[in-house]
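Lecture notes, part 5. Sequence design as translation. It can be helpful to think of inverse folding as translation between two languages: the language of shapes and the language of residues. The source text, in structure tokens, appears below.
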């Protein structure tokens, strides 16, 4: 049984289809419609008879593909209104069947042509089934006819017409929305996290990626505890931890001495993840992509973000794919498209900083020699640090080393040409590891830079991840910082889709994340100078001083509090937004941290049960944590994404509002309902 159909606003190249009318003749908002009928066309379209032209018919669409580009879900229960013609030269029509089924469109779709009065005449629309009828209707405020599918057979609540993909929602009555709330450009960890966060907070999302296939091999190899905490409400941490190594061990090669280090448990008591997690970027992308797919959002690969224009109500992005180009309207664009960002270039945002004099060599190889298997090896060599991870994708070992920069034409941050096997062997010999390269599966050289965008927002376009800041791989900050960007941005774009002015909410993204990115950039710059600089001082430290201090390392590494401070520094638990306009202190005092600070994980009692605080807040949305004698909020309108918890182990009458990204947003020492309501309005939560 066919459960959905979509008329998608999508241009495509077709030799049989004529070129569309010029831009001046395209239908536009506010154009008049003459409500009279001449000929066998649509009643009220104001256009006389005209020979129709088939655009696309008889197309088989696998259910697993969804409705394809241009069709997006809207909340269940809204009428399914489909624009027949939104832009020329053509429309894309697809039928979406139940899982593992396909069905051919029973009738062709024919469209008319633009006339001088900027009206469009549609002649026929394919029916989707014997119990579903097709008729035409005008969308409010639109000058052209539209079809509305009104299914007579109800579907079960929550049912969808596909097993995944951007497409039709058929719970009760299916719907297709021509304008999405958030267009995410780039399907790396940052873009995937942004899309997932926005979707979980009520936004309709579309995510496009220029590359036809996911980029492999991985470049990032570590996920920190703060990132896992922030992803936990999205329900993906279990899948990430299943693929990662939560008990990593390392061997430090300090001259002729080897020192073992345990990087698993540390003395961090306010987190559920007191460890470093060895996790490849490939696995992160797979888990987040699957999470989006199960929610009906499919990554549109092979689709390039090419142009942008904006008006007072929307932004219009031009997307190019193999079958043509389209201009899609959306409320916001999140440009997560890497250091060579098209979004940043189109927005005219400056890119301050410069290149490093060193570059990174990456390689997957099989090695013969005396290497402890399953352990990360770190060599402090005079030319620079050398890392060997037991996480290779094409072979057992992944090599990461530095050397002086060599021009190869590749953009900074992107893998360049391969590195010869002899060069990889020379790097390992210089490090003194005593191993031989038996097989080189893959290698690349990557130029590095340290840069920060002048702004993270320009109108309705936002920058996140490497598009906003680019730094060295030192301290494993790149992927983690990008994900935290996306989790900060995603919920704000989702809440800002509601009517009303949201300048404070949208501006807060740059006000919060740009200072944090600057601090991370300073941290990685310092660490990279110590790890890889060819200057005299760092080379002397690596090659002479550190080997001399090798006997002290076993004692230092066994000190749990020292290791805890290292993990705390690397995981960015120190990031706080106290000066943000969204960090509001009501009446003095109140439970929990100051507004803007990270919400720590601790033991609390809620509804008579002992529970960890992060377990209590492990769901999307805002969480109101009310003290034992705090106010009753039963009659207060809070919003669909607000959850209330009464913490009986917290004395007093205060309350704390935790944001979706795990930071405290509002706190008051007494039950100030008016101040709470003002903060909820500030963040557009209701």
């Amino acid at each position: 049984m066919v459960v959905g159909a979509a008329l998608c606003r999508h241009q495509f190249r077709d030799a049989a289809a004529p070129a569309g009318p010029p831009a001046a003749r395209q239908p536009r908002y506010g154009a008049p419609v003459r409500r009279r009928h001449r000929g066998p066309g649509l009643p009220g379209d104001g256009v006389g008879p005209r020979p129709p032209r088939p655009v696309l018919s008889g197309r088989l669409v696998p259910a697993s593909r969804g409705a394809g580009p241009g069709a997006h879900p809207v909340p269940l229960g809204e009428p399914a209104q489909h624009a027949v013609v939104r832009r020329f030269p053509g429309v894309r029509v697809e039928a979406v069947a139940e899982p593992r089924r396909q069905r051919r469109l029973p009738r062709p779709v024919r469209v008319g042509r633009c006339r001088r009065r900027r009206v469009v005449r549609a002649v026929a629309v394919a029916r989707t089934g014997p119990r579903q009828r097709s008729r035409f209707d005008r969308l409010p405020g639109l000058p052209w006819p539209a079809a509305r599918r009104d299914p007579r057979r109800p579907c079960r609540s929550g049912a969808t017409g596909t097993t995944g993909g951007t497409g039709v929602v058929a719970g009760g009555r299916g719907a297709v929305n021509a304008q999405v709330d958030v267009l995410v450009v780039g399907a790396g960890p940052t873009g995937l996290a942004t899309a997932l966060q926005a979707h979980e907070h009520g936004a309709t999302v579309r995510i496009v990626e220029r590359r036809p296939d996911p980029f492999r091999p991985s470049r990032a190899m570590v996920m920190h505890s703060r990132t896992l905490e922030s992803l936990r409400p999205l329900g993906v941490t279990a899948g990430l931890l299943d693929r990662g190594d939560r008990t990593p061990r390392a061997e430090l090669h300090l001259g002729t001495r080897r020192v073992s280090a345990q990087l698993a448990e540390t003395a961090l008591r306010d987190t559920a993840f007191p460890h470093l997690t060895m996790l490849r970027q490939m696995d992160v992308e797979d888990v987040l992509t699957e999470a989006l797919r199960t929610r009906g959002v499919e990554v549109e690969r092979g689709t390039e973000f090419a142009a942008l224009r904006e008006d007072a109500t929307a932004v219009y992005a031009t997307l190019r794919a193999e079958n043509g180009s389209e201009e899609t309207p959306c409320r916001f664009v999140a440009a997560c498209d890497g250091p060579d960002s098209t979004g940043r270039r189109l927005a005219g945002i400056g890119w301050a900083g410069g290149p490093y004099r060193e570059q990174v060599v990456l390689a997957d190889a099989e090695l013969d020699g005396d290497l402890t298997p399953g352990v990360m090896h770190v060599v402090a060599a005079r030319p620079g640090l050398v890392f060997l991870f037991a996480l290779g994708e094409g072979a057992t070992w992944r090599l990461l080393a530095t050397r002086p920069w060599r021009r190869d034409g590749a953009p900074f941050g992107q893998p360049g040409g391969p590195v010869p096997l002899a060069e990889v062997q020379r790097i390992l010999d210089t490090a003194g590891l005593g191993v031989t390269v038996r097989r080189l599966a893959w290698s690349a050289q990557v130029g590095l830079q340290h840069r920060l965008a002048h702004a993270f927002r320009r109108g309705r376009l936002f920058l996140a991840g490497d598009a906003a800041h680019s730094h060295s791989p030192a301290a494993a900050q790149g992927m983690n910082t990008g994900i935290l960007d996306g989790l900060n941005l995603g919920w704000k774009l989702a809440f800002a889709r509601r009517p009303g002015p949201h300048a404070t909410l949208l501006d807060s993204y740059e006000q919060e994340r740009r200072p944090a990115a600057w601090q991370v950039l300073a941290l990685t710059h310092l660490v990279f100078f110590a790890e890889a600089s060819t200057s005299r001082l760092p080379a002397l430290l690596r090659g002479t001083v550190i080997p001399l201090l090798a006997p002290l390392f076993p004692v230092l590494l066994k000190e749990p509090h020292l290791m805890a401070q290292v993990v705390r520094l690397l995981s960015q638990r120190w990031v706080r937004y106290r000066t943000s306009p969204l960090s509001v202190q009501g009446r003095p005092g109140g439970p929990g941290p100051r507004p803007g600070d990270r919400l720590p994980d601790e033991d609390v009692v809620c509804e008579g049960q002992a529970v960890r605080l992060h377990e209590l807040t492990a769901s999307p949305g805002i969480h109101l944590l009310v003290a034992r004698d705090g106010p009753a909020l039963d009659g207060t309108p809070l919003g669909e994404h607000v959850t209330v918890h009464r913490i009986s182990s917290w004395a007093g009458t205060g309350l704390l509002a935790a944001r979706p990204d795990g930071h405290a947003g509002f706190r008051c020492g007494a039950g100030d309902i008016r101040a709470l309501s003002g903060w909820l309005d500030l963040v557009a939560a209701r």
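The translated text above is only one of many valid answers, since several sequences can fold into similar shapes. The chain is about 20% helix and 25% strand.
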